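Hi V.,

You were right to ask for the full record rather than a summary. Here it is.
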Amino acid sequence: MPSSNRERLLRAAAKAREHAWAPYSKFAVGAAVLAGGRIFVGCNVENSAYPLSVCAERNAIAAAVVAGNRSIEAIAIVGGNDKPSAPCGGCRQVMAEFCARETTVVYASADGNSLSATVGALLPASFGADDLKVAAGESTGSSRGPAGRRRSAARLRGTRSSGR
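Predicted structure:
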């Protein structure tokens, strides 16, 4: 990633971090992604029902997707005080959905210490669209179930709930 993009993304992530809603963990995080030549930001938004909280990285990626982008070119994350905080596993999986394996991810602490990695290095054996295509082809020869209806991705993975 060119140093000019790196600095712009880190500044945008640091500014987004100022808006984090982290009353429970007190761990504010800001993220910025470059997509389609534009920077999109997000911050973590906690909820008293903890599983409903959303990470900064996923909020920034969602903002880019809402604007019509399907490919993230670079990511910067600012969180923590003196030690850079790497993205969580859920965010790494979302990054794998919208980034090439070579996409640079810079994660930095509030005091400026930073580390860089690629999406592929952060999640070397990610599960993605190609896995679903293979699963659909291997299980039935197509992704259609009985009566010609399309099978959902969850059903192909065997994770569909039995609530229906």
